[in-house]
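Cross-posted from the bioinformatics board.
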Amino acid sequence: MKKIWYTVDAFKNRQKMKNYFKKIDLETKKQFELLDITEKVKMAVLESGIRQGIVVIAVPHTTASVRVSHNEPLLLQDIMKSIYRLVPIDISYSHDLFEVRQNVAPNERSNGHAHVKAFLLGSSESLIVEGGSLLLGAKQSIFFVELDGGRSRQCNIKVLGE
Amino acid sequence: MKKIWYTVDAFKNRQKMKNYFKKIDLETKKQFELLDITEKVKMAVLESGIRQGIVVIAVPHTTASVRVSHNEPLLLQDIMKSIYRLVPIDISYSHDLFEVRQNVAPNERSNGHAHVKAFLLGSSESLIVEGGSLLLGAKQSIFFVELDGGRSRQCNIKVLGE
Amino acid sequence: MKKIWYTVDAFKNRQKMKNYFKKIDLETKKQFELLDITEKVKMAVLESGIRQGIVVIAVPHTTASVRVSHNEPLLLQDIMKSIYRLVPIDISYSHDLFEVRQNVAPNERSNGHAHVKAFLLGSSESLIVEGGSLLLGAKQSIFFVELDGGRSRQCNIKVLGE
């Protein structure tokens, strides 16, 4: 087989994948809290140098979530009120029956309700990066959703693209 | 160090990342509407030329969502009825108290309920591309979920892979 | 134009995208069941050889979902009880009116409730791979959520990265 020798010109337009990871630390103060992390996610995209690709935001907790919504204070109250109505805090959750549950930690919280809420909401959202920017609608903000605070929390951000 | 010269054969099996973005425009007619966008997403995958990778579908709105479900007309009624029951339209949302809310636009809608619904459903879904096709189950269709229509809407599609 | 000849050294630090796909088969036994698939997803990440990137887990069914939660048996009961309360099985769903519905298969199930549940929960979750491992919090397990079992099911896993 005849071998053809190429110069770098043959490769320089080849797209190069970039992979950027950032863990952000958060402090929540209330049981149910919506923390706007939009600027932190935008910063991660900027730091990544990625101009087109995706962002995956994933929470490493089972009583927290991530969601995109409109940052209007009265609406955030509506959201929390609605979620409390769907998954009440004042009914019985078997998860909180520490007498019958196995492997209960000494400082265990009565947070059955928070796990159910997190299950409903999910643990990740994916967004798009285009033209060097995070693609968000005019009214969209990204929220870390604390369902069993106050706590020290993390949120993992991965930017993948080129 | 002895330098070894390689031919292009050494690189031609190297996978090349492709990045494809498409914004689709939608017109909704009703307050709550499920628009089947499966064909539009499949077209985007085809146009991308990507044979294996992922698709992220993200809505840039705070009163809309994206979901995968079975396109059966009676079922779509069930889904809408259930979501109306979970987040009723005829109860009070603080977001709609325009007298106390800050920065209310002149043409503001009473759409507290729609924001809450969008929060529950989420703003993105991720799908898989394999063998040049969007991987969907036999009964799966992709829906743009309008929760506060009728409106002119967008839906962002990113295909990432090779 | 003067052509410059490069050695492989010029390319060997260039990141190479890897694309790994795995379909896992599952057998569910009960109508509503939470199957822990954490080990299967971790295995897929290991097999992919990908050390940094993302994992998309997508179900190709319209009466199943995927979620990340704490694998504590009493909690799993709470989750199922809460979801049954939000989307009851003992109310009427138009999808189950086989007399009026079009194109009903002979072995059709009365599963309107399960479709609504799947719509609420969504069909995908995205996770992050970093340092060769799936990034999961200490209490996080990945669940295939069966909403209309027992059945033979699939779950699609895509690992994308380098």
